[in-house]
């Protein structure tokens, strides 16, 4: 347990990550060495990691250092291996638990484990990994309402239709109509191209969104994917036409849109991934009664394929950009199967004619 002094120092805000420039000099040097790939004959231990993975681990390590600077600042004068022991990790987990679920805590400790193991591979850090796994096993998963891609797709189409009606009534494309159309297209595109939010927010015209024949195609390069595998999504004819309307009319209604080539635009700049998340959650919560984040569009895609074409459910692996179907099955398919079975039973029962139960 935390001591009284540490309890008094704790804050309700856990976003106290120490910026890289403020890390101890030794930590900065060792960290950079983990990613230095200048020597082709001596590959750095983390040079193969994607930019997103590197950022995640750097953020986790920075959060650990930020915690120490807040709770035990003198500890930063020690070497990195000397700072990390069971007692401090237990206190750190308790600190995170003030604002985080066990799932988040296990992720943070897991990233810390992979970071410190790469920085100091001669030490035995398995105890830290085991702590992270124990916390993960006891974590209670969040139960989200089930949603299918068809529900989300219909929402996106409705928003675009409403935006066109709104613009027609005003005899011009207003800002609110432009935002509504953009958000509708954004939602529908996430259904047909359920990529991760970071890649989705960084799509650029002509570079990632290209016209091939009579269709728009989204090409996601390796450096924007978690698995470092190229992904390609051909948009349907319906969404291709909707994209044409967006680019020709609604996107241009945003001030400064002509000055940049970001696909998802706001006022003079691109939408951030957090903005995309907020807008998606806002519309889905209003239409469906519960929020659906961009990441859950990936679950929705797997659920929809499982429901519509269970014999070909393995195509979900390529759609989601996974390296193996085991990953798709573990995180996207297994939970959906029991829910779909329960929904099928409910449909059968609801279709029973009144009085049928008398014969059972």
Considering the chains and any ligands shown, give keywords for the structure.
disordered C terminus, hpI Integrase, Chain A, disordered N terminus, mainly alpha, elongated, 360 residues, 15 helices
Describe the structure.
This protein has 360 residues and is mainly α. It has 2 domains: 4-138, no CATH class; 149-347, Orthogonal Bundle (hpI Integrase, Chain A). Helices cover 57% and strands 4% of the residues. It has helices at residues 4-9, 25-35, 51-71, 80-83, 86-97, 102-119, 126-138, 149-170, 175-192, 197-201, 237-250, 273-288, 296-308, 315-320, 325-351; strands at residues 209-212, 215-220, 231-234. Strands 1-2-3 form a 3-stranded antiparallel beta sheet, with helices on one face. A hairpin with a 2-residue loop joins strand 1 (209-212) and strand 2 (215-220). The longest helix is centred in the C-terminal third of the chain and has 27 residues, at 325-351.
CATH architecture name of the largest domain = Orthogonal Bundle
Helix percent reads 55-70%
Percent of sequence in beta strands: under 5%
Q: What kind of sheet is the major sheet?
A: 3 strands, antiparallel
Number of domains: 2
What would CATH call the homologous superfamily of the largest domain? Intergrase catalytic core
Taken in chain order, the helices and strands follow as HHHHHHHHHHEEEHHHHH
* Strand order, sheet with most strands: 1-2-3
Number of strands: 3
- Number of separate helices: 15
CATH topology of the largest domain: hpI Integrase, Chain A
For this structure, what is the CATH class of the largest domain? Mainly Alpha
**First and last CA, distance:** 58 Å
Low-confidence runs (pLDDT<50, min 5 residues)?
1-13, 308-350, 352-360
What sort of overall outline do the alpha carbons produce when their principal axes are compared? elongated
Structural class: mainly alpha
- Rounded mean pLDDT is 81
Radius of gyration: 24 Å
Query: In oligomeric terms, what are we looking at?
Result: single chain
């Amino acid at each position: 347990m935390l001591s009284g002094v540490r309890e008094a120092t704790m804050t309700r805000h856990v976003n106290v990550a120490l910026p890289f420039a403020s890390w101890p000099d030794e930590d900065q040097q060792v960290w950079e060495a983990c990613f230095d790939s200048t020597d082709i004959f001596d590959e750095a231990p983390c040079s193969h990691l994607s930019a997103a993975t590197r950022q995640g681990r750097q953020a986790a390590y920075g959060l650990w250092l930020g915690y120490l600077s807040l709770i035990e600042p003198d500890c930063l004068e020690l070497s990195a291996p000397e700072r990390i022991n069971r007692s401090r990790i237990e206190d750190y987990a308790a600190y995170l638990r003030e604002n985080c679920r066990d799932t988040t805590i296990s992720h943070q400790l897991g990233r810390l484990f992979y970071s410190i193991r790469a920085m100091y591979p001669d030490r035995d850090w398995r105890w830290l990994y085991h702590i992270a796994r124990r916390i993960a096993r006891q974590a209670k998963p969040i139960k989200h309402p089930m949603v299918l891609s068809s529900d989300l797709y219909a929402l996106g189409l409705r928003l675009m239709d409403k935006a066109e009606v709104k613009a027609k009534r005003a005899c011009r494309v207003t800002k609110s109509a432009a935002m509504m159309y953009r958000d509708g297209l954004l939602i529908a595109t996430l259904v047909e191209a359920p990529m991760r939010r970071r890649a989705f927010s960084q799509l650029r015209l002509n570079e990632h969104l290209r016209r091939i024949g009579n269709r728009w195609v989204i090409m996601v390069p390796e450096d924007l994917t978690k698995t470092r595998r190229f992904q390609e999504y051909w948009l349907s004819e319906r969404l291709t036409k909707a994209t044409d309307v967006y680019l020709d009319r609604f996107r241009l209604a945003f001030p400064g849109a002509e000055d940049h080539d970001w696909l998802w635009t706001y006022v003079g700049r691109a939408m951030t991934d957090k903005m995309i998340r907020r807008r998606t959650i806002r519309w889905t919560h209003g239409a469906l009664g519960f929020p659906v984040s961009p990441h859950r569009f990936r679950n929705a895609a797997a659920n929809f394929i499982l429901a519509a074409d269970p014999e070909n459910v393995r195509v979900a692996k390529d759609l989601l950009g996974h390296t193996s179907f085991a990953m798709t099955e573990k995180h996207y398919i297994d939970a959906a199967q029991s829910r779909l079975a329960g929904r099928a039973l409910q449909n059968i029962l609801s279709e029973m004619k009144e009085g049928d139960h008398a014969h059972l």
